[in-house]
Amino acid sequence: MTIASRMAAAMQSSSWIRRMFEEGAELKARLGADRVYDFTLGNPDLEPPAAVKEALLAAVQDDRTGLHGYMPNAGLPATRQAVAAHLSQVHGLSFSPDDIIMTCGAAGALNVILKAILDPWDEVIVLAPFFPEYLFYVENHGGVVRVVETDRDFVPVVSRIEEAINDHTRAVIINSPNNPTGQVYGADLLHSLGGMLAVQSRRYGRPIYLINDEPYRRLVYDQVEVPSVFQAYADAVVATSFSKDLSIPGERLGYLAVNPQAQGRQELIAAMILANRILGYVNAPALMQRALVNLLGTSVDIAPYVRRRELFCRILAESGYQFVTPKGAFYLFPKAPLDDDVAFVQALKEENILAVPGRGFGRPGYFRLAFCVPENTIVAAAPGFARVRQRLAPGT
Amino acid sequence: MTIASRMAAAMQSSSWIRRMFEEGAELKARLGADRVYDFTLGNPDLEPPAAVKEALLAAVQDDRTGLHGYMPNAGLPATRQAVAAHLSQVHGLSFSPDDIIMTCGAAGALNVILKAILDPWDEVIVLAPFFPEYLFYVENHGGVVRVVETDRDFVPVVSRIEEAINDHTRAVIINSPNNPTGQVYGADLLHSLGGMLAVQSRRYGRPIYLINDEPYRRLVYDQVEVPSVFQAYADAVVATSFSKDLSIPGERLGYLAVNPQAQGRQELIAAMILANRILGYVNAPALMQRALVNLLGTSVDIAPYVRRRELFCRILAESGYQFVTPKGAFYLFPKAPLDDDVAFVQALKEENILAVPGRGFGRPGYFRLAFCVPENTIVAAAPGFARVRQRLAPGT
Lengths: 396, 396
Hints:
The structure is a homodimer. Chain A folds into two domains: about 5-50 and about 300-390, Aspartate Aminotransferase, domain 1; about 50-290, 3-Layer(aba) Sandwich (Aspartate Aminotransferase, domain 2). Helix content of chain A is about 40%, strand content about 15%. Chain A is built from 14 helices and twelve strands.
């Protein structure tokens, strides 16, 4: 074999989504893309706000020297200052630029955080259903994932997390607003989780970090609030990106922020800055960092997501699907009418509907639908959803 | 301790360059930056060619939809097509877009390559003196570095490399044109190295990859040619960036290319694409990728580097320093007039000259000077170089 055996294993385990993608591509090639209803991809389809183009034009036209050069590995001071001011407002805490590291998206941020804190065999708790990339990110740095199930509404259960902690536990990754479930964790839950982690950190003599991956923070519905993880726990770190806020996932711009109250904050930040360098990111792209300084108050208009969510929920409910109405993000995670979610997703495919089986997210028996697609795609898929439901679970 | 113990060790071992940087910053703060002659940083100081700005403006003003969105993890098809056409011309081989993965700079490319091929305890041969980041990149993915010394002119010795190979060896990293020495490896040497690696690969039953990190390919002097590593060996991979060609190191754009003749090419490329994704790069920045399509024939005018190299070589020679005249890149790696390179660099600092000790690159007794600085900085430092040489090794 030419490649590493663990990469061969990773390619095998990542094959669900790839297989769905390949089968979908084959279907589209056969029927035409407009006759296939593809709900598999969490790829924001809205265009960036006009301000993004303006900010990029200004950044490109800036004639000062050295603007495309190397910079501190943590990022441009002016950009980190702008992010710190923004975070201070959002979280009601005083952030300084030194609490911020600009990264290549949230994926880059999570890898930097994990690289800084994990020695081989250290454990990270991940809550199912989960964004499957977390498993890779932890394994990249020699860590071991411990999966803890959320409840039937996809809400974390603090006592279950507590039971999973031992002296190898270095972090808990949460993701609120959540992919794939759309769940948003409330302030009480976060405080309860933070309180438990504070006790366990003292017990084991070093901090257990609470990492919130929160790229969907601004993408919430029905006036739901996303509480601050920093308010709930001192040893909290946030990873996020502008992929959804500004609809620029291809530009790879994100950041990580460390609670100004975290233990050993300076050492932690220094390790993360070194991790950003030695993992080969070196720094987040310079031009996007400069554009960002003027974009922190900007966000895509989420009205299309609001309409699609209502529409999709109505269509699924009318056909008898059971699901938790998403409070945020752009996913639905309904219960499959069959125990076998893979067989169910195959049945959907016969109606030219593409979805991802729940087992890809660590919860078999469910399926994920991404609603970053035009409303007419959702409408056109409605009869297919109804027929499959009727055929597989008639009268229930 | 809040951070991983191996990161604490990495912070310790990376402290040479940091310490130089901090001492330099302190000196500059005290004396004024214009009175300190800083030759420590390999940061291209030329501005990007005008075509870069034009290409970026066109890319920002392009009004098609989805241009800032997710893309295949390997990069934009049009960009990979342009790189493949460029490489076909340079190497006299037929590259297809499938042989190319766009990356976050050469640092990203190297991490992606190593992630794809290394299992824990696999070995990678690195030639001293070396770019010190290689040690981190190999360790990131659980690999073990085996250092092999080059000869006194910094030329690799094939028999020494052969002796270091065992059944754990997965790759040899070379860097031609070289940082820190300026050496460029000739075609005969590469063919001899390739021939030996082909024999050893057959012996151990799997390919030992030859990885050339070649971001300085276009930065060569006296009509030196940089021979193709692909012509010399089938299982060759190139990692490179546009940081030096276009003077855009902050923008993090590079690529890796696999020899179209490599064994198990498809599997290798597939593993690298997955590595690009799961290491959190996801894809190289979209906007720069689009701009690049029109920039592959473009390069900074290297005339300033040519003049600085001549000037610096003359000044050092006149003061009696021994060095190998660099054939490429923008570094000099002279012998220190003291065995103790750290003490020598401290002596230079007393003349307000900042350099990096050779032991930072795995070869004590030497020191590195980066000449990506204005000519007048080199001229102004000349008396200091002469005085230190005279004081430490009078009459030799």
